[in-house]
């Protein structure tokens, strides 16, 4: 069941690279047969060794079972909002504040919660975060650019933290996105304290999916 979940959710671009990719119709057929699933899993093993390794007491693909796409998306959005907390807290203009409240809902309240993170960053980083947030709000009246900004930052914060604390989750977070979005972790910059990421990780991991 875990392998079915992984192969259903993983972005097709991870099945091969460059010209060595699998035909979409063949991929659908492979997902439907036990042999095909084993071959696809073997193909992914080089890119996701921690995810595909059996975990003591949890078995195979534990991160994929614990973190379906919906739960992962909620965690990523909250992490992104928290990472931009310095900019969100400093925004006092009426219309941007209204948009942030409406678009982010509970994630906006999280960004304001100094008990989760005090939001202290160096002045240069604070200015960068404010500029990026302002650009996303000004670029369009729709919220998708804002969501893309927060989700991109949230995925980075999660992946760098997870590579130390939950490597299977780090693998899984990459496989859910196209291969072309993958960057080496050494090139990714983060600023959230590990304890803040862990707090949200624990919260969302225990939260029912329907909540």
Describe the structure.
- The protein is mostly helical and 211 residues long.
- Helix content is 64%, strand content 2%.
- It has 13 helices and 2 strands, in the order αββαααααααααααα.
- Strands 1-2 form a two-stranded antiparallel ribbon.
- The protein is elongated, with a radius of gyration of 19 Å.
- The model has no long low-confidence stretch (mean pLDDT 90).
Task: Please tag this protein with its features.
single chain; mainly alpha; 13 helices; 2 strands; 211 residues; two-stranded antiparallel ribbon
Helix/sheet category: mainly alpha
General shape: elongated
β-strand amount: under 5%
- Average pLDDT over all residues: 90
Helix-strand sequence? HEEHHHHHHHHHHHH
- Major sheet size, sense and barrel closure: 2 strands, antiparallel
Q: Give the tally of β-strands.
A: 2
Distance between the termini: 24 Å
Rg: 19 Å
Which range best describes the helical content: under 10%, 10-25%, 25-40%, 40-55%, 55-70% or over 70%? 55-70%
Q: Pick out the low-confidence regions.
A: none
- Give the count of helical stretches: 13
Subunit organisation of the chains: single chain
- Give the strand order, joined by hyphens, for the main sheet: 1-2
Topology readout:
Layout (H helix, E strand, L loop, with lengths): L1 H8 L6 E2 L2 E2 L2 H8 L2 H11 L4 H4 L9 H5 L2 H15 L1 H6 L3 H11 L1 H7 L10 H17 L4 H22 L1 H9 L18 H13 L5
Antiparallel strand pairs: 1-2
Helix pairs in contact: 2-3, 6-9, 6-11, 6-13, 8-9, 11-12
Summarize, please.
By secondary structure, this protein is mainly alpha-helical.
